[in-house]
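Researcher: Can you fold this with zinc ion in place?
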Amino acid sequence: MSSSISISRTKELWELIKAGATLDAQERIMELRQAMLDLQEENLALKEELREANQQLAVPALVIDRGVYWVQLEGDSRDGPFCPLCADGAGKRIRLREAGTFSTPHQWGCDMCSSLYPA
Ligand SMILES: [Zn+2]
């Protein structure tokens, strides 16, 4: 329901009240109340959509290097690595931890999905 429809409905409502048609007026009030609730709901959904879009814009892009994701920072420095499976599958940026021991070669491990990646 657009605001122009809402304004014409309000005028219609005022005419009904002036003519003493209170039942019709009550019906119009209920319609307007419902339309307002629908708009509030739509407004909330749009705000949430906008918040998510802004959040995605603020997050720097991931770059892949030898099978794991990194965030390229200024100069030669970078942040990471992050789990590719969690990033591509669940859209979550999960930091990998060093999982190497004396007996196994150095690896990156994901605490979320338990994937192991050679470092
Ligand atoms: Zn993972």
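Model: Folded with zinc ion in place. The chain has two domains: 3-58, 62-118.
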